[in-house]
Write a structure and sequence with these properties.
By secondary structure, the protein is of the alpha+beta class. The chain has helices at 17-31, 67-84, 108-111, 115-119, 143-152; strands at 3-9, 36-39, 45-46, 49-50, 58-65, 91-92, 101-106, 132-137, 157-158. The strands form 3 sheets. A 5-stranded antiparallel beta sheet has the order 2-5-1-8-7. Strand 3 and strand 4 (49-50) form a beta hairpin. The longest helix is centred in the middle third of the chain and has 18 residues, at 67-84.
């Protein structure tokens, strides 16, 4: 593994910055790494309709994990979070970008299953806990090798495996 990127797009942050603050605190709690805020690149206008999104407004948070924190996060997912998901089959075999990087998403109720969030559940308003996207960057050159590596670490895959 080379790194893991954990990110969350918070659309509600456009109207209320509290969503962004809670998302940053949750990401920092589950990854032990300070979250970085990302700004919108461009405004969204369609005809006469003007949406809330403006260039320069904060819209997402992300953390990049390397070294020991990367392995700790992955072990925590495999040992405590994934077993807590009801009827979870695993990660789709089609997830991947063709060059050895695999991604999966966690819903807000799954993020709440992390021990760091569950212990301080009262600190986070339940409706504000975000879902997260996790991308595992490997040194593998194709998705098949990356799936073999992650299978050896205890992550299950289901469905048709696409290479």
């Amino acid at each position: 593994l080379s790194r893991i990127t954990v990110s969350s797009l918070i659309r509600d942050a456009l109207t209320d910055s509290a969503y962004l603050h809670v998302a940053g605190m949750v990401l920092q709690a589950i990854t032990s790494v300070r979250a970085h805020v990302h700004l919108a690149r461009r405004s969204t206008n369609i005809g006469r309709a003007t949406f809330e999104q403006r260039a320069g407004k904060p819209i997402a948070v992300s953390c990049t994990l390397t070294g020991e924190t990367m392995y700790d996060f992955l072990a925590e997912c495999v040992e405590t979070v994934f077993p807590a998901i009801k009827e979870w089959k695993g990660i789709p075999g089609s997830s991947g970008d063709g060059s050895g990087n695999l991604g999966f998403g966690l819903r807000p109720e799954t993020v709440a299953a992390f021990p760091e969030v569950a212990v301080n559940y009262d600190s986070y308003p339940p409706r504000m806990i975000p879902g997260v996207d996790v991308v595992v960057h490997t040194t593998a050159t194709n998705d098949r090798d990356a799936r073999l590596l992650l299978s050896g670490m205890g992550i299950p895959f289901y469905g048709k495996h696409v290479n």
